[in-house]
Specification:
The complex is a heterodimer of chains A (about 400) and B (about 80). Chain A is built from 14 helices and 10 strands. The relative contact order of chain A is 0.19. Chain B is built from 2 helices and 5 strands; from the N terminus they run βαβββαβ. In chain B, strand 2 and strand 3 form a beta hairpin. The longest helix of chain B has 13 residues. The chains are: A alpha+beta (about 400), B alpha+beta (about 80). Bound molecules: protoporphyrin IX containing FE and iron/sulfur cluster (SF4). Iron/sulfur cluster binds next to helix 1 and strand 2 of chain B. The site of protoporphyrin IX containing FE has 25 residues of chain A, from helix 6, helix 10 and helix 14.
Amino acid sequence: MSRPSAVGLAAGTEPLPDFPQLRQCPYQPPPGYRDLREAEGPVVRARLYDGRPTWVVLGHAVARELLIDPRLSSDWSRPDFPSPSPRRKAIQKATILVGMDPPEHSAYRRKLISAFSVRRTRELSESIHRRAGELVDTMLEQGPPAEILSGLALPLSSHTICGILGVPYEDHGYFEEQSALLVSPQVTEDDATGALMNLRTYLTGLVERKEKESEPGDGLLDTLVHRDLAEGSLSRDDVIRLGIILLMAGHETTASMITLSTFTLLQNPRQLAAFRADPAGAGLAVEELLRYLSIGDVAMRIAAEDITVGDVAIRAGDSVMLSTAEINRDAEVFDDADDLDLARGARNHFAFGYGVHQCIGQNLARAEMESALTLLFSRIPGLRLAVPAEQVEIKPAQSGVQGIYELPVAW
Amino acid sequence: MSPVQVIADTDRCIGAGQCVLTAGHLFDQDEDGIVQLLTGAVDTEGDVALARQAEHLCPAAALKIQPVAGYVAGNDATQGQRGA
Ligand code: HEM
Ligand code: SF4
């Protein structure tokens, strides 16, 4: 039973602030979130682009409680599932895994996790490190100038996903080119949609080819085809959709983290000097960059049942959005939360989410960031921005992955 | 420091590997990526702290730290210590 004093989502007719809001600085959460939290507490009300009111969670303790609460649903197939933008609404048609609740979610997730275990990631990290080195060397040969997103971040992220899925080496070029189109700033919505269709067609062909192979390779698609498809626990369409969802979830996120981390370090010379001076601390540095930048800013949920948190009464059917960026700056959990402190060593951030959907690719993402950043800054000691920092363009509030479009550099 | 026992609910585990990253000598992932305990009781101060950190970080609430049997401290399943 909720207390009578509890505030409901539809209470009052006063105008509500927008959610999501635009970052004013690429590496700081929108200042409006802090104002709201200071004025109203860790759970506030706001309005989505389509006029729908939503709860917005801004505090760490409440977020932790809610993200493991089974009454909060990720079921994108519900017609009333909320969305922070029209583009996300379109993506939400691809419901597999990330848009499912347990037990359906668990059944799919269990088929994937062995490919992402800490041990398997360590095996893949060698190849990630080698590829990052090649990309940095190519930048050095061809530049200056260079551009971090297209020259390093996107190709590295695509290489990693190829490795996970088991895309044959000779197809990496095509896969990389098409997946870059999904994210590139110069590309129209139509071109991006075309690229996604091309990738789906490619993956369909690849799955068919793998079905005919008598000696399966060691990629995730090989396992899914020869274990799950063969025994009938997954359909061919499931396998393809899982391949696509890994690409959609892992590509832009990691690329954006590498690009934005590079910018952030260049803008914080003292931290950059510390980063260069201590290669052994790179793992900690990556963890802090994840917390500080929180580019996967907004976990979307819907209340499947009534939930009372503090004096807030969330009703079944209410939209609940969690701003991981603001949550990761909670002063009750992180000392001097707004300072970038590469030696901080705090892993209890929600940059990868929390609860059963916590990022399955997180250890790969860490490996990619660590290789890209250490090699970039050690092999190019004079690295600097090639444009004034104010000209670096921030992605709009409603893009699901926060960050910057591109990062021209010189040395 | 009284010894504690780590209990892993393998049905809840979602294989994010946070526990392995926290303490690779206490936790592992099996062939399927599911948590595997490498030790029964944990008794040094450092390891108890690491086990508690893993419990706190586990995104699926799959780990529980309990006093070793014989120590029993009631049925309050010691939850919610903050600020790992
Ligand atoms: C730094 C880079 C990355 C960030 C910041 C990130 C962030 C996130 C977040 C916040 C979630 C939780 C979404 C939710 O709770 O609704 C998530 C889930 C997911 N991520 Fe990542 N991610 C990254 C890299 C990757 C990579 C490299 C892959 C795969 C190759 C990947 C695959 C996935 C998948 C499949 C899910 C859904 C898991 C599930 O629903 O069980 N991510 N990610
Ligand atoms: S941290 Fe939790 S969910 Fe992740 S592997 Fe360990 S027990 Fe499983």
